[in-house]
Structure formats: structure tokens, C-alpha cells
Design brief:
Low-confidence stretches: 96-100
Radius of gyration: 42 Å
CATH architecture of the largest domain: 2-Layer Sandwich
Bound molecules: adenosine-5'-diphosphate
Shape: rod-shaped
Strand order of the largest sheet: 2-1-3-4-5
Mean pLDDT: 88
Oligomer: single chain
Length: about 400
């Protein structure tokens, strides 16, 4: 199907317009008439024209003046113009400066054949130009889409490279973390072997033996925690980490945790305090909540040694809020979201132990309870992690 081409004819005499209209009207061409340059300009700004046929002699603005105006406007600059003038007069009117558009002349009285063939030439030209423009637009569109794909691919590639890098770092951290307690145990074993060899049984008297067993237990616990974390991450990836809510007293649980952490607090020289009501009944997965709080406390001692650490418990917005506050190194704004992701650790703490899994697992556990975890921190002043949980967790939720 032909693209409809609009042609504007401008003449001050209605009978001339009628005659010209009748001459050029055909399928695929829409003729617009204007009886003055002003009316023509209005139309020119409203539609896209393939050709303008202008009567040169018009009262007010003549055809050439109108052409000058058209040339001065971006929208109309490229419209080809055919001037209609009295025979032999066209050379008297030199029309300068209309370089970009085609210009032609028709003479009165109009020769129907000449009029039609000129119109056909200009309309064909316009259609070809349009087709080329459409192709260029399509090409540009395809190029843009291709660029988008390339950008996406690059982003994916970067993401993959980052994931591989993190996996590698993770593997080396796991090895390091496993080696540390194993090395300690191995050293202990060597020392004991030496005592046995020298028959130094005093080293195994009840008191040193109890301390020895406790040291072993700590190293073994550290390894168990590490392996548990890795198992939890695998469960999270498979969507099989489930929570089993049951009724318990959150205040009592926190008292127990804080008590259990008193050795670690002493080792880190952190005064540890709990501010909690006497009792606060909830229905959550006690074991998992303990895991979350234990991780927050371990971090508080690790990243805020020799500074007070406080655990708060209060009822909040129909649920409970547990806050763990330290006065340690704090966390830079740009790291505050990131550290909740898998394997993510704030950049400058390569020296300290940790796999960057604790907060990730913690957040998943809290969210599986229908709760949320948030952080406010000022670098150099400390951090407060707030865990909000509903009083009753949705039953048997499987995290996916
Ligand atoms: P890990 O401590 O094993 O590296 P986490 O997921 O528990 O892993 O913590 C991720 C990172 O968040 C830590 O490496 C540390 O950079 C930062 N972080 C966590 N807790 C604190 C805190 N209380 N103070 C300062 N930085 C913290």
C-alpha cells in the first residue's frame, strides 16, 4: 500500500485552487488548500507535506516570501516547492537561498500533463526519502538493541567474574578458618604427647585437664559452627532451610545467651550487658533465633573489642525487637547493605576471622520468620543491629 502523501496548494483565488486540486488529486495523495500564506503556514506546522505548490503572486505575502519563511523553519525547510507563475515571469523573480529543498516552476495557464508529471516526481522522491528514513531508523533501533544486549552481557560477565572471585576467596578463607582450630588442636596434642613421654602426669591433674578440655571444646565448636554455616548456606540455596516455631520466653533465652557468652566477652574485654523485661513470650524457632543473636554478639566482640556491648529486648509494633549494640569500628555507609549478602565482608577487615556468612544467614532466618533486620552505624563509633520479629512466626515456613 502506498504511503499517503500530502500536497499543499496555496493560491489566493478559490477557482485556481479548485482547478489545481482536481488536476493533482489521485489515490495516495491528500490535497490541502490554503488561500493565503498565513493559512499555508498554519497547515505546514500541522502536517508533514511531500510538496508545496505556491502561487507566486498573492496579495500580502507572496509565494517567494512564504518560501523564505519555510526555509527558515526546521520543520518546513526540506519541503520541495513548485512556484506557479505567469508564463515567462519566473526569471524576474530570482529565488535565492532555498538550497536544501528542490525548487521548480509551473507556468500559467497550467499544462495538466506537466503538473501531473512534476507532482509524480516529487511524490515519488518523498516516498523514497521516507523509506530510506524508516530503514535508517530501523537500523538505529537495531543498533541500540544490540548495544543494550552487549551492555547486559558485559554486566553478566562482570557479575560472573565477581562471583568466581568471591568463591575463590571464600575457599581460601574456609581453608584458613579450618586450619586455625585444627592447628591449635594439633599443637595441644603435641604438647600432651610430650608430657606423656616425659611422664609429666601433673599436666593431666584435674584442674589443668579441665582447662585443656575446655580449650579443645572451643576449637571444636569453632569448626562445628563453620561447617554449620556452610551447610546453612547450601540449605538456603536449595530452599530447604526451614524454621520450626514453638513457644518460649525470649527474655529468658537472651539471658541464657548472654551468660553463655561471658567467657568470649571477657576474652574480648567487652563489658556485656542485657536490658530486657522479665519475660516476653514468643512463638518462634528458638534455635535459629539463638543462632542469629550469637552471630551478632560474636561480631560485636570481634569488631568492637574492649568496648561495652549491650543487648536490648523490647516489645515493638506488635512484635519484639532485639538490638545488639557495640561501640567498635562501625561500618561505612557504602558497606551497610552489602554485608548482608553472601560472602560479603567490609573491605578492610581481611585481618580478622570470618567468612562473611553470618549476617547473610541471619537475615534469611529473620525473614523466614516474617521479620526484618536493620543496621545503624557510624564509622569509628559503633554499630547497632536491630532484629524485629513477630510474636508468632508463620508455621513451618520454608525459606526459598
Ligand atoms: P563475618 O563476620 O564472618 O565476616 P558476617 O556476615 O557476620 O561475616 O559480617 C559481614 C561483615 O560485616 C564482616 O566481615 C564485617 O566487615 C562487618 N560487620 C559485621 N558486624 C559488624 C560490627 N558489629 N561492627 C563492624 N563491622 C561489622
Amino acid at each position: 500500500m502506498l504511503t499517503e502523501a500530502r500536497i499543499l496548494i496555496v493560491d489566493d483565488l478559490p477557482e485556481n485552487l479548485l482547478a489545481l486540486d482536481a488536476l493533482i488529486r489521485q489515490d495516495g495523495i491528500v490535497v490541502h488548500q490554503a488561500q493565503s500564506a498565513d493559512a499555508a503556514l498554519t497547515q505546514l506546522l500541522q502536517h508533514e507535506f511531500a510538496l508545496a505548490i505556491l502561487d507566486v503572486q498573492m496579495p500580502g505575502m507572496n509565494g517567494f516570501e512564504l518560501a523564505e519563511l519555510m526555509r527558515g523553519t526546521e520543520r518546513t525547510r526540506h519541503i520541495p516547492i513548485v512556484f506557479v507563475s505567469a508564463a515567462g515571469h519566473e526569471r524576474d523573480y530570482a529565488f535565492h537561498g532555498y538550497e536544501s529543498g528542490a525548487v521548480d516552476f509551473l507556468h500559467k495557464p497550467l499544462d495538466p500533463h506537466a503538473v501531473r508529471s512534476k507532482v509524480t516526481v516529487f511524490v515519488d522522491l518523498w516516498r523514497q526519502r521516507r523509506a530510506v528514513r524508516t530503514q535508517v531508523d530501523e537500523l538505529e533501533d537495531a543498533r541500540r538493541r544490540q548495544q543494550l544486549l552487549v551492555d547486559e552481557l558485559q554486566a553478566t560477565q562482570h557479575e560472573l567474574e565477581r562471583a568466581v572471585r568471591m568463591r575463590d576467596e571464600f575457599m581460601s578463607m574456609v581453608s584458613h578458618e579450618m586450619r586455625t582450630p585444627l592447628n591449635t588442636l594439633f599443637l595441644e596434642a603435641q604438647v600432651r604427647k610430650m608430657h606423656l613421654k616425659r611422664n609429666n602426669l601433673g599436666a593431666f591433674a584435674p584442674e589443668p585437664l579441665a582447662a585443656m578440655v575446655e580449650r579443645d571444646e572451643r576449637q571444636i565448636q569453632a569448626m562445628i559452627r563453620l561447617i554449620d554455616d556452610m551447610l546453612d548456606v547450601t540449605r538456603l540455596q536449595r530452599g530447604t532451610l526451614s524454621i520450626t516455631p514453638k513457644r518460649f520466653d525470649m527474655a529468658q533465652l537472651l539471658r541464657g545467651i548472654v551468660e553463655g557468652f561471658c567467657h568470649q566477652a571477657a576474652a574480648a574485654e567487652c563489658p556485656l550487658a542485657l536490658e530486657a523485661p522479665q519475660s516476653l513470650q514468643v512463638e518462634l524457632d528458638e534455635f535459629r533465633i539463638e543462632q542469629v543473636v550469637a552471630n551478632l554478639l560474636t561480631n560485636a566482640f570481634r569488631y568492637g573489642p574492649a568496648k561495652p556491648v549491650t543487648v536490648f529486648l523490647q516489645e515493638l509494633q506488635g512484635g519484639v525487637e532485639i538490638a545488639v549494640q557495640d561501640q567498635g569500628r562501625g561500618i561505612a555507609m557504602q558497606d551497610q547493605q552489602r554485608i548482608f549478602e553472601q560472602f560479603e565482608r567490609a573491605v578492610d577487615n581481611k585481618v580478622s576471622a570470618g567468612l562473611g556468612l553470618g549476617l547473610f544467614i541471619g537475615r534469611q532466618i529473620v525473614e523466614a520468620h516474617g521479620g526484618s533486620i536493620s543496621l545503624s552505624s557510624t564509622p569509628g563509633e559503633g554499630s547497632t543491629f536491630r532484629v524485629w520479629l513477630p510474636r508468632i512466626a508463620p508455621a513451618a515456613v520454608t525459606q526459598d
